[in-house]
């Protein structure tokens, strides 16, 4: 059994990435909800997205203990607007990320005090929302360790020390900074638990930590320690796209 280690409200981040959308216009709210769910199905395998029609509804959910990681706030709403809500929230909570959505640049200067990860202008573009979600996941929700349990044995591996993973029959060999460890699992199971913006497939049997890649080629990847990982024809183009995106987000 393989589990990704995360954190709870009191300091340990949950492996489930929870997003709240607060928008008073129903068509925009539903469009954002659908877009977030589609994007996160690829970016964060374990996620939950909820939508709220007002700052009051969102405030009540937070008061009831909803552990959101990211709030997508419309700035101009009836009643308490998104900017006022964010300013009040920051007096009590420094952890939750804030993404402002607006149709006007009027409040941009005021927003810096609450440290939003980004501003998106309406109509929200899919590519821009994806970049914002990737940024927040990378900065605030990326797991630092991978906990692997086999029978009564538990092993915690620092993700930064994982160079690559290799599938061998029904086993996964985890090649570390120093040495390697073997666990009974499928590579696909491990892949679902690792940060999708940091690990990519170079081959059907290989999963690589892009932070370790020094050079890419059509037939192999050269890692920083001098080791080489094969690249198959079927994965070359997708691997190249993922690696370029990884470099742009560093």
Describe the structure.
The protein has 250 residues and is of the alpha/beta class. The protein has 2 domains: 8-140, Response regulator (Rossmann fold, 3-Layer(aba) Sandwich), CATH 3.40.50; 145-249, OB fold (Dihydrolipoamide Acetyltransferase, E2P), CATH 2.40.50. It is 32% helix and 32% strand. The strands form 4 sheets. The protein has a 5-stranded parallel β-sheet, sandwiched between helices. The longest helix is centred in the first third of the chain and has 18 residues, at 26-43. The protein is elongated, with a radius of gyration of 20 Å. The model is unreliable at 1-13 (pLDDT under 50).
Name a few traits of the molecule:
single chain; 250 residues; alpha/beta; 7 helices; 16 strands; disordered N terminus
What is the structure about, briefly put?
The chain is an alpha/beta fold. The chain is built from seven helices and 16 strands.
SSE-based structural type: alpha/beta
Please give the share of residues in helix: 25-40%
Q: What is the class of the largest domain in the CATH system?
A: Alpha Beta
CATH superfamily descriptor of the largest domain: Response regulator
Strand percentage lies at 25-35%
First-to-last CA distance:
31 Å
What is the annotated CATH architecture of the largest domain?
3-Layer(aba) Sandwich
Number of strands: 16
Mean pLDDT, nearest integer?
87
| Alpha-carbon Rg, integer | 20 Å
SSE series? EEHEHEHEHEHEEEEEHEEEEEH
With strands numbered from the N-terminus, the spatial order across the biggest sheet is 3-2-4-5-6
* CATH domain topology of the largest domain: Rossmann fold
Number of domain modules: 2
> Any idea what the shape is?
elongated
Note the quaternary state here: single chain
């Amino acid at each position: 059994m393989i589990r990704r280690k995360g954190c709870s409200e009191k300091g340990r981040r949950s492996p489930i990435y929870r997003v709240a959308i607060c928008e008073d216009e129903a068509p925009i709210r539903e469009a954002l909800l659908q877009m977030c769910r589609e994007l996160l199905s690829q970016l964060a395998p374990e996620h939950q997205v909820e939508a709220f029609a007002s700052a009051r509804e969102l405030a009540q959910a937070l008061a009831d203990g909803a552990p959101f990681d990211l709030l997508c706030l419309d700035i101009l709403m009836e009643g308490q607007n998104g900017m006022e809500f964010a300013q009040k929230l920051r007096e009590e909570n420094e952890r939750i990320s804030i993404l402002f959505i607006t149709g006007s640049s009027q409040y941009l200067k005021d927003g810096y005090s609450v440290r939003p990860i980004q501003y998106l202008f309406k109509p929200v573009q899919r590519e821009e929302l994806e970049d914002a979600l990737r940024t927040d996941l990378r900065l605030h929700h990326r797991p630092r360790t991978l906990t692997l349990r086999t029978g009564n044995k538990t092993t915690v591996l620092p993700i930064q020390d994982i160079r690559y993973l290799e599938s061998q029959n029904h086993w996964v060999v985890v090649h570390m900074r120093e040495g390697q460890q073997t666990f009974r699992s499928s590579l696909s199971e491990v892949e679902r638990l690792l940060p999708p913006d940091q690990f990519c497939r170079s081959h059907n049997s290989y999963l690589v930590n892009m932070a370790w890649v020094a050079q890419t080629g059509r037939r192999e990847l050269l890692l920083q320690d001098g080791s080489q990982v094969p690249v198959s024809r079927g994965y070359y183009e997708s691997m190249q796209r993922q690696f370029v995106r990884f470099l742009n987000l560093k």
